[in-house]
Amino acid sequence: MILSCGEALIDMLPRRTEAGEDAFAPYPGGAVFNTAIALGRLGAPSGFLSGISTDLFGQMLTGALEASGVDTAFLIRSARPTTLAFVTLRDGQASYAFYDEHTAGRTIRPADLPALPETVEALFFGGISLMVEPGGATYQALMEREAGSGRVMMLDPNIRPSFIADEAAYRARIGRMIALADIVKLSDEDLRWLVGGHGLTAGAEAVLAQGPKAVFVTEGAAGAHGFTAAHSVFVPARRVEVVDTVGAGDTFNAGVLAALHSAGALTRAGVAALSEDALRAALNLGTRAAAVTVSRAGANPPWARELA
Predict the structure, then answer these.
(1) Mean pLDDT in each 10-residue stretch from start to end of the chain (308 residues)?
(2) Are 50 and 6 in contact, with CB atoms under 8 Å apart?
(3) pLDDT for res 92
(4) With contact defined as beta carbons under 8 Å apart, do 6 and 79 qualify?
(5) Deepest in the core among 31, 142, 187, 250, taking most CB within 10 A?
(6) Cα distance between residue 78 and residue 305, in whole Å
(7) Which pLDDT score is estimated for 97?
(8) 12, β-bridge pairs
(9) Could you give the CA distance from residue 63 to residue 59 in angstroms, rounded to a whole number?
(10) pLDDT at 87
(11) Among 27, 30, 23, 167, which residue's Cα sits nearest to residue 103?
């Protein structure tokens, strides 16, 4: 199983009523939640670990996970409210306003974390769950706890600078988690925020030098890159009519993980020895899946049959 560990929330997406009034419609979302959903739909064994409310929105989230074949045995349930993210779109690009104080997802603590069975082969971390306390410290503690287990660790910080309360503390956390990760995925904007304006290849090499064995960098409509110590591969994005970009990077992550799982390479030794062909296959599935997601409204990853 690939266990995605991080936030689940409700994306409040802009809509227009029949009377012409501006409105928001609730859709299950959250970066790490979206990756878990996409993995399940791609046919990979997917599980999800997060704090989930027992409120109406929490029930929506749980139902969405189950409908996509995601194992919900690792949910940490509470009566606290669900995080809401109000989304605004400009030329298809999404920006967010988060309502996250005292929520079920944000308030989980290390003592809430379950033991993980041997069936968990990889853990995925990222998103806004790493930017807030005590949840951020809890996910860091889980990664540190499992770092010696032999399981593959993947990190996508999905950095949102406006949501970071303490930049120094956040940079320290991300640095520690990058050092523990086998795979790191970053957007080109994330990469610049982390390492400055050194150029994409030099930036990726700087991240590799911190410990990961593979680094993936997405460049939006241009495509995506994969880097290891031995190889550098670029795959152009699929050309589609973009509705919005909500969930695109999250779906890309699922495609990478699903491809590595299918190839039998989702082990620490396998990731450390990725061939050029394996990198290209992971990039291809990631970009193909993400192209479907951006072609329709909200975070709605494709099913495997849609990519056949």
Answers:
(1) 97 91 93 97 98 98 98 98 89 79 96 97 96 96 95 96 92 98 97 90 97 97 97 95 88 98 97 97 98 89 93
(2) yes
(3) 64
(4) no
(5) 250
(6) 35
(7) 87
(8) 26, 86
(9) 6
(10) 83
(11) 30
Nearest to 89 by CA among 225, 237, 245: 245
Specify the 3-state DSSP secondary structure of 295: coil
Q: Phi and psi of 253, rounded to 5°?
A: -55, -45
Q: Phi and psi at residue 220, in whole multiples of 5°?
A: 60, -130
* Cβ 290 vs Cβ 256: under 8 Å: no
Bridge partners for 85 per DSSP: 11, 98
84: Cα within 13 Å, side-chain hemisphere: 12
For residue 211 the two structure tokens come to: 């410990």
E strand intervals along the chain: 2-5, 9-16, 22-29, 46-49, 51-53, 70-71, 76-78, 84-90, 93-99, 122-126, 152-156, 183-187, 214-218, 223-227, 232-236
Please write down the HEC assignment for all residues of 146-207: HCCCCCEEEEECCCCHHHCCCHHHHHHHHHHHHHHCCEEEEEHHHHHHHHCCCCHHHHHHHH
Distance between CA 91 and CA 286 in Å, rounded?
A: 23
For 120, residues 6+ apart whose C-beta sits below 8 A from its C-beta are 1, 2, 3, 47, 151
**pLDDT at position 88, please?**
85
